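Structure, all two chains, one model.
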Amino acid sequence: MSALAWWRVAAKDARLELRAREALQPILLTGILVVVVGLLAFHDVEERLPVAAATLWIGLAFAGSLGLARAFGAEKDRGTIDTLLTLPVARGHLYVGKVASSFLTILVVALVLVPLYFAVGGLALPASWPALLLLVALGALGLAATGAMLSLLAAQARSRDALLPVLLAPLVVPLLLAAIHGTMDVLADLPFAEWRPELLILVGYDISFLAASTLLFEAATGA
Amino acid sequence: MLAFEGVTRRFRARKALDDVSFRLAPGSFTALTGANGAGKTTLLRLAAALDSPTAGRVALGASVGWLGPEPGLYDDLTARENLAFVAGFFGRSEDDITAAAAHFGIEAALDARARALSRGEKQRVALARASLAGDLMLLDEPTTGLDAEGAELAARALLALRGPRTILAATHDPALVAKADRVLRLEGGRLA
């Protein structure tokens, strides 16, 4: 039962989102706005790739942070968080379920933003485009892992929508820097050896945050 | 099943619970009474492991079916889906869900989204969900939001669950208190 717990939580969240679309629409619009404005505003700069890579990740991080606040915030608002916490599973599974649903949301946003990014930015699709998808997936997982944990802490606060980005920003700096530099290298069609360090940072970040947060979640839920 | 041993819970300088000890008999219905602010919700949250005592020990030896002060349903899921979400964690079948719905008189509402239900129907769905969940039902004001007839039906349904379920219900409802096997009265955080 326990092994499926995270899946049940994520599937429930996905079903709710498909029906209500409370989170996805504003997140998508915000992401599109950031990417389009960023690319158009800096279309004539000489060093195009750094600006383009940063624009993509700022768009994903900014839009993602809007949705991440809802991971546990929405459960708090509905009065369902206590029911979740009394379920007969290790609470770390609930956290993993929320990471999965947040990851899925950011991934959907990325699937819209990345093609738009190439279309609006007039950028050439790199030969190693699967590498870009890998970086996006790892970055999205890191954002989801960090955001889901902070969302639980922020859910207790009255001003959680303002609090979450403040808590999230300093923690995801290493993730975003690695993602931006890795994206620049991939867009420039540099060989794997050039962006391997950034890939390792992303993998290390994701594993560290997932492992630490899963262990800390029990303490953070107050029991 | 559930035992409190010298449990104290402080919120800064205020003692919400002060040296509370009791043990629930398996299969019993216990009413938890007291004025607003006496510590009933704090006691239930400690019993459900949603909070930790400042001092003392809470021994919980059962899975918990929880009903908080609000029904706490997912408005965009149907009543059946709300029940199935929790039931799935306890290995309950579709037949168990149907039986719980019938027990609390909400069969007709099972396929409606929770947002379309009345407050009373939501409360009965939440009671059915708690009954599907644990061996120990911890209920905060279970007859809130129900009219007189609904409260009577819910009380009867809860009492019928004694035996397979152990129930601890914080309540101001005198009819429910009158039917309880035992009454725990809190006054200023202490058991009277």
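Chain A has one domain: 5-220.
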